[in-house]
Amino acid sequence: MAVEKGFTNIGFSRLRDFVDFKLPDSLDEISYVANATNFRRFILNKFGKEGLDVDQLIADDEDTRLTYQGYRRFLMSDLRHIYTLGGTRTSNTYKRETKYLAKQMLVRGYAFAGAIKQNFPNHLRLSIHQSTGEHKVSMSLLNTKTGFTTPWHCSVALMADGEWMSAPMGDFKENPRMKVVEEKGRPSYFREMTDEEFLEEPNRADEAAIVQFEDPTVSENYEQERNENFVHWEDLTYDVKSGGKRKRLLDQVDGWLRGGTLTALMGVSGAGKTILLDILANRSTSGAAHGDILVNGQPRNIASKNMAGVVYQSDLQFPGATVREALIFSAILRQPKTTPYVEKIAYAEEVVHLIGMEALADTAIGTGGEVLNSEQRKRLAIGIELAAKPTTLILLDQPLSGLDCQAALSICALLRKLAQKGLAILCTISQPSVRLLQSFDRLILLAKGGKQLYFGKIGVSCKTVISYFEQNGARQRNAEENPVEWVFEVTGSNADSDSPQDWSETWNNSPERKAVRKKLLQLKEKFAGQLESVNDPSASDIIQQAVAQLDVRDLQRTYYKYLFLEKMQLPLDYLKPDIYGQLLADSAAIHRPLYPL
After folding, report:
1. Fold of 211-307+393-538
2. What is the pLDDT of residues 316-355, one digit of tens each?
3. CA–CA separation, 455 vs 468, rounded Å?
4. Where are the domains of the chain?
5. Contact at 8 Å (CB) between 287 and 240?
6. How far apart are CA 464 and CA 171, in angstroms?
7. Is residue 550 over pLDDT 50?
8. d(CA 147, CA 444)
């Protein structure tokens, strides 16, 4: 490298050059393994500190503590493929073992520092992370928006806004927006795709699972049209009357959802997350909503009543129906009357494949988790909304609740697949891991009372969100802290936190919010649509008329019609009127059809 770069005032040395230990001139894999143990023992005996109390150093010395935390973090990640859980190795055992290894690495590190000091007494060590050790100077090798680069196993990425960012390679590889840039035929760095590039880039991992329509021309046009879908809102407020007084549950919330992207909606209890979902879904609410909600700049009206599919946290399904039957029922009942019956059945079959439940298509749903597990029931709930063929977006209330990490990641992968079809996805989630949160593109963060704290990109390892709060006065996040828990703490959202700063006011006056408002104005100008207030009386009247047209008897007839045509029959246990009344209408008694099929 020195020759290639033309360096003349710099030399390179290896640790083997500092010690009197005979090693082969050429270290291949076998000779390395054969000599590594003896070499390390020699270094420890000659340069190590006798009686070194690592635990005390971690407690007292800031530089040692930072190094120890870095070792632990990457050991936890790297060794999980070698020392797998199971048998006598529990999660707690694995953590205890990695702590021990990290401390042994510190012991070796002090021996290494001793070897350097003996050979170069006046040396200066440049540290790529913040460090306070002897002979150390902290410096950032890149002008990154996150300050110091991440030590150990570090990769860098050129972000879409022109800034550089560093993180472990795994974080970048898991982000679907990142592409590897090669130089001289070798991988060099990651580059973040712009929104336009990302929406046009085929997801190779999901290509085989994407639904292929019978008419490829229609499918191509349909997807291309939906990829430009925007649902955008500005100054959205929502008030209810409580005890004769008006109570605000959403307070001037701004944002947008774009086809092809995933957005996470987070906040404490009482932040108005479910209310925002209901308003965006055009569901009737008891309070008064004000503000502008537009779809591609156009008023949201009865023409877009099938705009959104909503997956609520409650899990109400026909226990005696199979997965396929439930999807067919949703398709027949909720797709437009003008759609031929055969097409509805065929589309329901496509949804079976899209949600990955072909093997369970003829399995009865059952109750609870007795037949389908939690993840499979979530997939089915999503599929039932897909069977209705929403045109623009899918809204999900706590879709990851009750799932283990692997199942939650599987659901996130399914949502990404749906986004690749052009749908915009919005999910409420509660304190996810970094890996789960990275599955999303943007974050809407609300505080109690529906006050907005943030709307924007999440970033690799959540660094964009973290950077926003740190730059506006939040304490610096420790490397081991969960970013979501840290955000809730510094913003005063946790019950045990007491933040004196009004973060909603910080957001309202921030350059980030000004950029959001500018983007919303650009969207209005782009689509040149006519604004419609959410509480426009004419729109509300139309919606109420549409709701009034839903006849429980028609609902009942449709269900029995598809049972008859498909030669299906429910078990007698599930023909009780109270079950149908609960599932289909709050106060309706369901009986067998009075009209011939």
Report:
1. Rossmann fold (3.40.50)
2. 777 888 899 999 999 998 888 888 888 999 999 999 999 9
3. 11
4. 2-128, 211-307+393-538
5. yes
6. 14
7. no
8. 25
